[in-house]
Amino acid sequence: MSLTASIASNVSELIGHTDLVKINSLSEISGCSILLKCEHQNPGGSIKDRAALQLITDAIESGKLKPGMTIVEGTAGNTGIGLALVAKSLGYKMLVVMPRGQAQEKERMIALHGAELVLVDPCPFANQDHFYHTAKRIGAQEGYWWADQFENLSNYRAHYLHTGPEIWQQTQGNIDALVSVVGTGGTIAGNSHFLSSKQAGFKTWLVDPEGSGIYSFLKDGCYQSTGSSFTEGIGIMRTVENFRQAKINHAITLPDQDLVTISRLVAEHDGILLGSSSSLNVAGALYTAARMGKGKTIVTFSCDLAERSYSKLHNEEFLKERGIELNKENLEKLWACYQQDDEGKVINL
Ligand SMILES: Cc1ncc(COP(=O)(O)O)c(C=O)c1O
């Protein structure tokens, strides 16, 4: 037997090539193959490592990011962790601007990865103190490079060039639908673009929390948010360049109660612990199975480590305060509910 050396030359090289696992309980009840792309396996623990790597390597290649410069970004957390990790491994300094009130877990990880952390009060996007504008202002100073994950298309390219082709290869081209939440839109855009170019009839389903702005935008053309979901890193109130690249066929919203229910069911039946946006993805995948019918292969993402949702999704007191029941439905009831659901909820684009 010959052994071949397989040693990454730095931690950034460990990003990507994540596994795809079947969620057996949901696949059995729906008659579909519901598959989970394990993005929590990335070294920074989230799907945003991919965007971080592409943003930085493209900027180095184009000459915008030069040795000795500091990378700056405004983020709800995971992109900050990914950028801090890639920055450190490639020898750059990192400054993260983050709104207060995000899970403490993410703040700690950014600091542990050696980045400087600037916390700002959460405020509407129009306010110049918003984390996005604060990062942009700092990034305009001498010696800084602003990653700009919302408008910089390296984010989308990470998924078009890597995640999409991985899914295509792992499913051997046997895939009918993709289900994804939206933060910057990089994930849904890159994957939907690549996979729909490979297969006629391929469908992309967007899932967002109940009352989300994007859903109202896709429905009526204006951003109107009526929800107060506890999910983090998703839900935007403006059309950004990365989201603009997405090829979306259908959009739905689901309440926080559903993502809590599905997270408990999948943990219990399949031994898979999900974070909050991932739970929404998985609930969305089950909903998609109910709409598409038996025999389909549906892929969605485990966007980050469940630990990152410990203080909210996995905190019983927090959930009770928000009126969320911990064991509301069993799988049969949730499935029956999705099968009977009003078709009018789905936006067809
Ligand atoms: C936990 C989590 N899930 C999903 C997303 C959405 O990914 P994207 O920005 O590619 O739309 C993010 C983005 O930050 C995130 O942090």
TrEMBL record:
Cofactor(s) this protein requires: pyridoxal 5'-phosphate
Source species taxonomy: Bacteria, Pseudomonadati, Pseudomonadota, Gammaproteobacteria, Vibrionales
GO MF annotation: an example: pyridoxal phosphate binding
UniProt entry keywords in alphabetical sequence: Amino-acid biosynthesis, Cysteine biosynthesis, Pyridoxal phosphate, Transferase
InterPro entries referenced in this protein's UniProt entry, alphabetically: Cys_Synth/Cystath_Beta-Synth, P-phosphate_BS, Ser/Thr_deHydtase_PyrdxlP-BS, TrpB-like_PALP, TrpB-like_PALP_sf
EC number: 2.5.1.47
CDD domains, per the entry: CBS_like
GO process annotations (BP): cysteine biosynthetic process from serine
Source organism superkingdom: Bacteria
PROSITE patterns named among the record's database cross-references: CYS_SYNTHASE, DEHYDRATASE_SER_THR
Domain Tryptophan synthase beta chain-like PALP: 11-304
Name of the protein in question: Cysteine synthase
Pathway: Amino-acid biosynthesis; L-cysteine biosynthesis; L-cysteine from L-serine: step 2/2
Catalytic activity: O-acetyl-L-serine + hydrogen sulfide = L-cysteine + acetate
SUPFAM superfamilies from the UniProt entry: Tryptophan synthase beta subunit-like PLP-dependent enzymes
Family assignment from sequence similarity: Belongs to the cysteine synthase/cystathionine beta-synthase family.
